User: What shape does this take?
Amino acid sequence: MQLVSIQHTACYEQKVIDESVDAHFARLHLDEICKPGIKVVLKPNLLMKRAPEEGTTAHPALVEAVVRHLQSLGVTDITIADSPGGVYSKPLLTGIYKATGMEDIARRRNVKLNENIGSTYVSNPNGVICKGFDLINPIVEADFIISIAKLKTHCMAGLSGAVKNLFGCVPGLMKPEFHWRYPEEKDFCNMLVDLCETVKPDITFVDAVVSMEGDGPSSGSLRETGMTFCAASPYELDLALSKVIHRPTEQTYTIVNAAERGLCSMSPEDVKVCGDPLLVYEDFKQPRSKGIDFMAFVPAPLRPVVKPAVNRLLTPRPQVKKSVCIGCGKCAESCPAKTIRIEDRKAHIYHENCIKCYCCHEMCPVKAIHVRRNPILNL
Ligand code: SF4
Ligand code: SF4
Assistant: This one.
């Protein structure tokens, strides 16, 4: 059992965040492992081109505080890297670095922003469902990986925290391929655990000063949760985060799969925390795609027979708000089922092939795709 450090952090004022990060380093004795000469990669959640105050990406104040602390220890080789959603290209990265505040950090702190869009296959012979991954090169070449996640809900995986953040180590449009290969949530999350075991981040920080509730990871609403987290184990961290957002662990398949492998327990009560007490938000809004286990209402012997029909009728589906859609095509580009077409400058979803992965919802820059529950569920 590894420690999860919690620090109550009221705002993103740089001084406040600096103190918070210093406290995590001290509590977890991280100064002893971050030695001068190591090649460090910071992997913040940079999902898309959004400003920090929109709460979709890891806040730059936290990224900068980690850089500052590393530099105070004499670490000079620091690169910020992520593969956001969409095409993995230099122009896309440049725009995202600028919008998310990473460009300013690089200039102020003299650290590198990754521009290498190559990837390398890394095998994972012990993988349960996936035996290897193409990973972006800076991750493969790093001596030390620091993941910086953002606490958000996630329409497909339920929780976007420490484990889910590593999906950004897979380059660009290879990500939708994984949704296509693993359309079932449990399999997809099992793949995420395999990925986490392949990347093996050395430390993970989580920005939970302001989190995202509701239809995360990009269309939810912001919620002040007032904490930062740090831990060596991404699994223990997600267990703690599930308690913060009051999400049952048995419905969070990254945790279920990790627990089945003995990487963590199923009970948040088992997490060993240090620092400030964990704050819990019992009314934290879950994604509309989640929260009802339809099959629980069906007698077990009938489940295999009725499951396809129940899924087709009752699983919430993505729907385009035509008045908001700007016809940019990012949803179609990210759709693993290739079931979205842009016609008359608007996105159209052909639902018969939709696998309900919600990538389109995640990648829409203007929140034009919402997740629509069958009205029967609102009765
Ligand atoms: S339409 Fe949206 S939810 Fe359906 S498969 Fe495509 S990306 Fe996934
Ligand atoms: S739905 Fe969103 S992502 Fe798709 S074309 Fe319209 S604006 Fe772009």
Observations:
- The CA atoms of residues 210 and 224 lie 4 Å apart.
- The pocket of iron/sulfur cluster (ligand 2) is lined by residues 320, 325-331, 342, 347, 364, 366, 368-369 (CB under 6 Å).
